[in-house]
Design goal:
The chain is built from nine helices and ten strands. With 256 residues, the protein is α/β, with parallel strands linked by helices. Helix 3 packs across helix 4 and helix 5 runs parallel beside helix 6 (173-190). The longest helix has 18 residues, at 173-190. The chain is globular and about 50 Å long. The two termini are 26 Å apart. The model has no long low-confidence stretch (mean pLDDT 92).
Length: 256
């Protein structure tokens, strides 16, 4: 397991008059083995934090730490063995002409694993897919099955940290809870640290012990899941989110 530390993180795109400050002075810590949420409306900067951590947003200042390693401008293979990401759209994130076997085998080979055959089957077992799915292509899978493959791919390098960018927002409501429960089980089984981005407060309450609320690139409030369920918010924007989020019920996450 690895902790995540963000100190005074700012991320921007462009230069001069065209510069956009996507994240401003974000500071928070995710303890080792915990699940932490970033919540806010679209454009609030929450996904940008994940991209900065993964090295996909090169213009940033401040400090990012994974475990005991302070990150610089580049990410090496050792970093990607430790930190993996699950994206929002499971169809777009899978190669349409690669079978499930090819997707998983490629990652395992890239990270230097042997006994590929055994590991591929173990990964499918981990995410609740049987051997019959191994040689299927993405178009032959449902949305929930594709996301399970994407999760298996993220688990392949045996990381200690998973970054989850709206992992269920592209799925039917009927399968969202299944995938969330799978992610919770995997965190306990593999002793993982999660950083979850979502606009859905019920998802955050179900998955996370605490969360940071973001507005216009800034963290405006930190809440525990108990605070969310009790509607104990102080910042006006957080109060607005809790009161106006469509379908939000403070106790709904307990029923998932």
């Amino acid at each position: 397991m690895s902790r995540l530390v963000f100190n005074d993180l700012s991320v921007w795109f462009g230069e001069g008059a065209s510069r956009v400050d996507a994240v401003r002075h974000a500071t928070f810590e995710v303890p080792s083995g915990a699940s932490f949420g970033l919540v806010g409306e679209s454009g609030s900067g929450k996904s940008t934090i994940l991209r900065a951590l993964m090295g996909l947003a090169p213009d940033w200042s401040g400090e990012m730490i994974v475990g005991e390693q302070r990150l610089g401008p580049k990410r090496n293979r050792a970093f990607y063995k430790q930190v993996q990401m699950v994206f929002q759209d499971p169809y777009a994130s899978l190669h349409p002409r690669h079978s499930v076997d090819q997707v998983l085998s490629e990652v395992l080979k890239l990270h230097g694993f042997r006994d590929i055959n055994r590991r591929v089957q173990a990964l499918l077992d981990d995410v609740g897919l049987g051997p019959g799915f191994r040689f299927r292509y993405p178009h032959q899978l449902s949305g929930g099955q594709r996301q399970r493959v994407a999760i298996a791919r993220a688990l392949a390098p045996e990381p200690s940290v998973l970054l989850l960018d709206e992992p269920t927002s592209a799925l039917d409501v009927s399968v969202q809870a299944e995938v969330l429960n799978l992610l919770n089980d995997l965190r306990e089984e593999h002793r993982l640290t999660y950083l979850l981005v979502s606009h859905d407060l019920a998802v955050v309450a179900h998955m996370c012990q605490s969360t940071a609320v973001m507005q216009n690139g800034e963290i405006v409030e930190m809440l525990t899941v108990e605070d969310m369920r009790a509607m104990r918010a102080r910042h006006p924007y957080t109060c607005h989110l809790l009161e106006s989020a469509s379908g939000y019920n403070p106790n709904a996450a307990q029923a998932l």
